[in-house]
């Protein structure tokens, strides 16, 4: 494999550089192609944005869960249903993002709920899926 050297002055390290392709030859045969597979272990991390609208349940589920919204993501490379975790990025302290409540080997759906509609609209959810590689 050819080695390419880049002068530091020719790159703006504040820029974001997109990567396409596959990296191989890493420790433990680790590779990256939209997720990471290490032996029989598959790890996929990503983000999803909650929609700009939410559902109002009134007082049915209490004030802390009055508004909710959902977002689905696509998963790939899993042989069976992985374990999925989620974390929300919002300044609304009462907003809660559930771990995925509808999960298969190819998708996961997350629900966020809050006492205020703005707490569950247009916010980023970070997710991590871990399971058996296909």
List keywords for this structure.
single chain, 134 residues, flat, five-stranded antiparallel sheet
Description of the structure:
The chain is mainly β and 134 residues long. Helices cover 0% and strands 39% of the residues. It has no helices and 10 strands. It has strands spanning 31-32, 36-38, 41-49, 55-56, 67-74, 83-89, 96-97, 102-103, 107-114, 124-132. It has a 5-stranded antiparallel beta sheet, with no helix packed on it. Strands 4, 5, 7, 8 and 9 form a 5-stranded antiparallel beta sheet that branches. A hairpin with a 3-residue loop joins β1 (31-32) and β2. Residues 27-33 have low confidence and may be disordered.
Write a short abstract of this structure.
The chain has 134 residues and is an all-beta fold. It has strands at residues 31-32, 36-38, 41-49, 55-56, 67-74, 83-89, 96-97, 102-103, 107-114, 124-132.
Rg calculated over all Cα atoms:
19 Å
* Mean residue pLDDT: 78
Q: How would you classify the helix and strand content by structural class? A: mainly beta
Strand content: 35-45%
Uncertain residue ranges: 27-33
Shape: flat
How many angstroms separate the termini?
29 Å
Task: Give the topology string: H per helix, E per strand.
Answer: EEEEEEEEEE
Share of helical residues:
under 10%
Q: Name the strands of the widest sheet in spatial order.
A: 1-2-3-10-6
Q: Count of DSSP E strands?
A: 10
Main sheet makeup: 5 strands, antiparallel
- Count the DSSP helices: 0
């Amino acid at each position: 494999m050819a080695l390419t050297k880049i002068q530091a002055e020719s790159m703006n390290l504040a820029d974001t550089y997109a990567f396409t392709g596959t990296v191989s030859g890493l420790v433990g045969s680790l590779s990256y192609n939209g997720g990471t597979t290490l032996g029989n272990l598959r790890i996929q991390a990503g983000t999803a944005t909650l929609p700009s609208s939410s559902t109002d349940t009134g007082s049915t589920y209490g004030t802390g869960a009055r508004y909710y919204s959902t977002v689905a993501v696509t998963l790939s490379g899993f042989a069976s249903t992985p374990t999925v975790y989620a974390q929300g990025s919002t300044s609304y302290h009462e907003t809660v993002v559930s771990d995925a409540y509808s999960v298969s080997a190819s998708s996961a759906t997350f629900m966020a709920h809050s006492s205020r509609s703005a707490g569950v609209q247009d916010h980023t959810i970070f997710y991590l899926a871990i399971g058996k590689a296909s």
